[in-house]
Amino acid sequence: MSTPTQTLTSVPLATEIPEALRRLPQWVVWRKWPDPERNRLRKRPYSPHTHLPTGHSPAHRHEWTSYEQACRVLAQESRLGGSFDGLGFVFTAEDPFCALDLDHCIDDQGQIDPYAAYQVRRLASYTEITVSGQGLHIIIQGRLPGTGRHPSDGMIEIYDRERYFTMSGKRWPGTPSVIAPRQTEIDDLWWQLAPPAPQTTAHSPTSAAAGAPHFVTRPEKTDEQILTLLRRSALGPAFSALHDLGDLGRYAGNRSSADLGLANMIAFYTGDPTQVERIMRGSCLVRPKWNERRPGGTYLSETIARAANRATHYTGKPTHPATNLGPVARRP
Fold it and tell me: Does residue 52 carry a pLDDT above 80?
């Protein structure tokens, strides 16, 4: 499935934008704005009411408007030679939507990256080509297990609030025209990636200054006890596939994402980065890249440090029936 890469028209097609989004008063217009620090153009949101810059936090809600009014403002500006470049939708904690941004996943020949294609097939929800023509937006019904931004190792970012997306209305061929409920899939993706969520941790000022991983303190357990907990949890099949078989199927063959996913699962149960590494080195994922030197240590130690920044951790309580994610997860 492919489409020629091009700079797309910035005016969304009403027939393609899902009605579930069009009926919410969370629309803005945007304008290209030079960013000298990054040497690129940014897409800055503006209020259709005031024609002044706006934001995507709840404090700016009164500056957003309906889809119809935002379209009128954009059309009027276009007739008058104005400089608004398109429409955007603001995601909030109150709406039921979650948005995935897959950046630079479409090449110059219009071919989609295999990992991005895997996510498109797996989520099977409204998917549009970004206004640059080089990326994809996937919008689903769901809520992140944590809050805020949830980046991965480079290609995909996930949001469910306080973020706006420029909307093209250019649906990726073969994808649904409606927004599908995908909570199970978003929970699973959360477990595969490690969010850099701030949290209260037990570490010394010296270790913090040295850039050491900041793990939440948890009850000490042996390697075998942790392995048993993992295999008996709801994540048992996923863990065994990675650790015991080296199966990358859930990660579409992406080894870096698989490394991070395994570290993420283990770090849920232990506050000791040395123990995480020891258990990982007993897996079928071991490869020479793990020993590559990096400014902060090695590739593997950096991966484990990312897993240390989880927003949830093991409490030692029974499995929570509502989450189906194994032992109860709570935010510190």
Answer: yes
